[in-house]
Amino acid sequence: xxxxxxxxxxxxxxxxxxxxxxxxxxxxxxxxxxxxxxxxxxxxxxxxxxxxxxxxxxxxxxxxxxxxxxxxxxxxxxxxxxxxxxxxxxxxxxxxxxxxxxxxxxxxxxxxxxxxxxxxxxxxxxxxxxxxxxxxxxxxxxxxxxxxxxxxxxxxxxxxxxxxxxxxxxxxxxxxxxxxxxxxxxxxxxxxxxxxxxxxxxxxxxxxxxxxxxxxxxxxxx
Amino acid sequence: xxxxxxxxxxxxxxxxxxxxxxxxxxxxxxxxxxxxxxxxxxxxxxxxxxxxxxxxxxxxxxxxxxxxxxxxxxxxxxxxxxxxxxxxxxxxxxxxxxxxxxxxxxxxxxxxxxxxxxxxxxxxxxxxxxxxxxxxxxxxxxxxxxxxxxxxxxxxxxxxxxxxxxxxxxxxxxxxxxxxxxxxxxxxxxxxxxxxxxxxxxxxxxxxxxxxxxxxxxxxxxxxxxxxxxxx
Lengths: 222, 232
Known about the structure:
The structure holds 2 protein chains of 2 kinds. Chain A is an all-alpha fold. Helices cover 77% and strands 0% of the residues of chain A. Chain A is built from 11 helices and no strands. Chain A starts with 15 loop residues before the first helix and ends with a helix. In chain B, strands 1, 2, 3, 4, 5, 6, 7 and 8 form an 8-stranded mixed beta sheet that branches. The N and C termini of chain B lie far apart (57 Å). Chain A binds chain B through residues 64-66, 124-128, 199, 201-205, 208-209, and chain B through 98-99, 102-103, 106, 109, 112-113, 116-117, 120, 123, 132-133, 137-138, 140-141, 144-145, 191.
């Protein structure tokens, strides 16, 4: 997903595909013999249920590390498992917002050796925000960005619908709306966040953002 | 005639030495240069240092010594900043019981964020003076708890040489022949997350046995261009 060039692994070995297929066949044979499909499905559900919270935290860490596509893939896996979870919807939204102008799946060009080299060069030279600005400047990037932001907003609202007392989607939705220049809506989401989380660690930061938004709105009216 | 030949040579040598990093110096953001940012309280987040013992057989980690060195480094930096009139916090919320877990996670988050930006700053230090680098407003969630105006990040990579290794290095001229630690210190705006100040410096000497002595002068020099505390 992250277009990393793995130099320690012989990833284009001529026999790699053949090796993958016989190992997969061996695993499938072992699984088929020992566990029936219903038991396998139950095991999978139990595993995902037990690891759900850890996986949610992992998504946040992947986003922090700049591994946005991996975060998105994990969030979709969680959402498929439990679509009625407010937290899963929230993390799905976070992953769409983090993706920004990047499509969820790498393109053919990005997967090529030249694409990977270009990706490595960009990552080395530019900060994440600078890379995003470069991508948004392209026509394709602009379109993908709008699509991802729209999906993020929809998932934040879904998360709020499933659990109106969850403060996190309000906070992130406020940031998203502010970046989209929808200041009065952003102000409302900030207000709702502070109402739901009166002892928030970032209370002072949010209050500064609210003040800045009020100034902007007042300037806009004038 | 001789003067005309000497001047171009002198200029060329100065440029090459500058490119090699010999005259990098501290980098200041315009806000700090123009004294737009008032600093009274400073929060120093725990330094992150890596120390390797370089022996004839290869490198070995020095985890125990690393913790001790980090503590001394933090203290030395605190003392230098206090001498400049700043109020120094070494922990965001030393007495806080409430939100302690959240503070811990927020601190880890900003350290992680700095680790992502740090290599870019090292690659182009002069861009600090252009205001290019920022950690984002999330720094505020830690600096607000400490009521700090700025947050200081310290990173270091050190090498302790055995006697035999020092001899080999000196003889073969294959690298520094004394134990040394390369430090970088960044001062970040507590509200906006902008990198306001950056300096790299090498301290030479056995910093695991006599850390206070080895760090004292380099840290003092490193903080020299940070404007002293002013009243708000």
